[in-house]
Amino acid sequence: MKYIGKNFFIEGVKVKNLAKKFQTPIYCYSYRRLKENIRSFKKNFKSLNPIICFAVKANANLKLLKEIKKFNLGADVVSIGELTKALKAGIQSKKIVFSGVGKTSEELNFAISKKILLINVESKSEILEIEKIAKRKKKTVNIGIRLNPNTDPKTLSQISTGKKQDKFGVTENIFLELVKYVKNCKFIKLKCISVHIGSQILNHQPYEKMLKVVDRVIKKTNYKFEFIDLGGGMGISYGKKVKNLNYKRYVAAIKKVLKRHKAKIIFEPGRSIIGNTGILVSKVLYIKESAKKNFIILDAAMNDLMRPALYGAEHLIIPESKNNILTKKTYEFVGPICESTDRFLTTKKFQKLNEKDLIIISDVGAYGMSLSSNYNVRLKPAEILIKGFKINLIKKRQKLKDLM
Q: Mind telling me the catalytic residues?
């Protein structure tokens, strides 16, 4: 994805042509970048030979899941819907991990019937529910127990999942009690210790702290776990400043633990695989002038991209076509929804825009379309996958009749 001359291209396709053909707003993904991300992730952790389970919550488009499956990735799912999509995409059940704090009996029943790799449990009540279903079905169910390591991931508070005040996982003491309980369960086999401390992590130090807790807890259990599920959370650069996680330091810390506790590593990456593959193309509807700034009113809104409204996330916005004329005014990019939080970015340095110009919101592949909604009875945008010069419509734009 880059400028060729004055216009922005995804691989061999001009974004302006996509906007003409499919209207705006529209999500567009680069297959080349998806492939590069998966290869890079595998290369970073090659010495560990892990099981890689793509976090479906990051992007659940079925066509994209089918592409991801071709690289032999598994899936991390958090609902019966995600599990069904993963299976429909052709992902092997033995490469699927079911996470989440509130799995229903229906979901547990379905997961057990599909013989997935692991159900990562988060409470004793969940273990008892699995035990009841397994006993009735006369099946042995493989589980992991999710530990809350009380580790601050140094990320947005809304996407932190590993501190003691977070709802995820169990405390160290409860973890030890649950291990003792499961040892005596006839229909449950404990296979895994699971942790996941949060999302958009760009510092290796929280991972190192997490691993020290994992190491200590495994020692205390005196139990041989077949798997250590380290979750995901690896971040990407959203702005102009490029910052990358130090994967070498992370791998070195993991290897220290594996020297003492031989186990197979599981990762659940989402954002690091799909985040920077996608852009959201939008049109300027109106420019509303005020004394201190100009409101750039787009045809995309918070229902199309929720992250800025939900937790103040910032996505780089760039013009589709360069004119090299800088504006003297502050621009605030907003959507048409009747909420003050329906805004994407405020910036002082941007080229002069006119009504009907196209802009590009960057790095929306993760938690873009998957968090979208029909708020204000707005239609969800189309999704396009670009492979070289080939344009693939992977999700049609909704029509009003679909919602009626």
A: 338
